[in-house]
Design goal:
It contains 20 helices and no strands. It is mostly helical and about 450 residues long.
């Protein structure tokens, strides 16, 4: 099997953490969190804080694991080390066929949504979404290095609109008194109030993505030092940026206006302060931000089946574990990732076309399912990391586990949770059937 080269450094890893996490969620989940919070800004901010703390403590635990394990694909490697090749294989299968492609489909749709708003288009949303999905898979196939550079560049670019909304909005709100008003008066036009747990689940989508940075583990220079630092630094930076950004919005728009504006809330903030040109420029930055996140997700998806095949397991292992000699990319794995992402986009489209009789939120449910998987890893961590202090060995994973349970509780209250779980279990069962037990003992060295 050809090996992937060590081509990424610390800043690419940090850019994957920040660049994937900060993307679409912070923009199009602001009204969802406020809605679920019953229109109350203090409750919404508490949800953002809880979601952020869960991400920080979880990434901290994973950073400790990353200092010891360096193989092919981060989180998959960790489960293989903890529970054997079968467990690692099933996690890789879930990431490949559910987690990565669902989020790729949603991000392509979100990017297309903001593009439609930027150009004032009323038709072609799904064609644009498919175009974006195709372009970034092609980029990752033809030039993984340029895909990494795009990740770093868009991470820097996407911080500009967040900083503008945060600084200008907070100053404006304090001078005008709108910030105090937003804290004191809850919105009345709430349509989907679900409580703090559901609100926190909405923030989890905005905070999700840091784990995908572990997918380039085999391509990081000095991964055992680089990856842990990137996970922790990136997690803290994201929480700080989100809280300041959300305060900036509340300093310009009332809670009623945030809910009414929906995904366009940040654009309205800039338009009110800087005029129409300011709103347009912000939309440009938002589109770039979303595309940066999409690229990071595609980077993970392109390596999905490779992480399965690298273990000598699954259908067509010899085909999917090959690395293209010219581009240093996982070509066949990426092509499969593209096809699966297209299928999940069809499911996402069905939500809006009314095919399912309800809304299967594949922007949140796969994340909650992943947190179910994390629980078993925390138990292994507490049993294995005996040379660490009490905080590292017991307190940190326990807090991460409680956070996972809280997220799972929020997911249980979501519409169509049962159909999604059934689909996921069928996918996992199919993977188990095709695992090829004759090679189940093969491990990555």
């Amino acid at each position: 099997m050809e090996q992937l080269h060590k081509k990424y450094g610390f800043w690419t890893a940090v850019a994957m953490v920040i660049g994937i996490v900060i993307g679409s969620g912070v923009f199009f989940k602001a009204d969802d969190v406020l809605n679920a919070s019953g229109g109350s800004l203090p409750t919404a901010l508490l949800a953002w804080m809880i979601g952020g703390m869960i991400m920080i403590v979880t990434s901290y635990v994973f950073s400790k694991i990353a200092t010891r394990i360096e193989k092919v694909n981060g989180v998959v490697d960790y489960f293989e080390e903890a529970y054997g090749s079968r467990a690692g294989y099933l996690v890789a299968w879930f990431m490949t066929f559910v987690y990565y492609p669902t989020l790729c489909a949603v991000l392509a749709w979100v990017s297309a949504n903001y593009t439609m708003g930027l150009f004032g288009l009323s038709h072609g949303l799904w064609l644009i979404a498919m175009g974006y999905l195709t372009v970034f898979f092609v980029l990752n196939i033809l030039s993984p290095i340029w895909a990494g550079r795009w990740q770093v560049s868009t991470t820097i670019i996407k911080l500009i609109p967040l900083a503008l909304v945060a600084v200008v909005g907070i100053v404006y709100g304090l001078v005008s008194g709108q910030t105090i008003q937003s804290f004191a008066v809850s919105a009345q036009n709430v349509t989907k109030s679900g409580g703090l747990a559901v609100a926190t689940l909405s923030t989890v989508f905005a905070y999700e993505g840091w784990i995908i940075a572990t997918s380039i583990n085999a391509e990081l220079k000095d991964a055992r030092k680089t990856l842990p630092k990137a996970l922790v630094v990136g997690a803290f930076a994201v929480v700080l940026i989100y809280m300041l950004y959300y305060l900036g919005i509340s300093g310009v728009l009332t809670n009623e206006q945030v809910i009414a504006a929906g995904d366009a809330a940040p654009v309205q903030v800039m338009s009110l302060i800087f005029g129409r040109l300011g709103g347009t420029l912000l939309t440009v930055f938002v589109v770039i931000s979303c595309l940066g996140t999409l690229n990071g997700l595609v980077m993970g998806s392109s390596r999905g089946m490779y992480s399965v095949a690298a273990r000598g397991m699954g259908p067509g292992a010899e085909v999917f574990k090959s690395v293209n000699g010219k581009t240093d990319s996982t070509l066949n794995s990426a092509l499969l990732g593209y096809v699966i992402s297209c299928l999940w986009m069809l499911i996402w489209y069905g939500n809006f076309a009314g095919w399912w009789g309800g809304f299967m939120d594949i922007s949140e449910l796969p994340i909650a399912f992943l947190y179910v998987i994390y629980l078993s890893l925390y138990l292994w961590f507490m049993r294995t990391f005996t040379d660490q202090g009490i905080f590292v060995q017991y307190i940190a994973p326990s807090l991460a586990g409680l956070g996972s349970l809280y997220i799972i509780w929020g997911a249980i209250q979501k519409e169509m949770i049962i159909p999604f779980v059934v689909i996921t279990l069928i996918i996992l069962a199919a993977g188990l059937i095709m695992m090829d037990p004759k090679r189940s003992s093969v491990r990555v060295k």
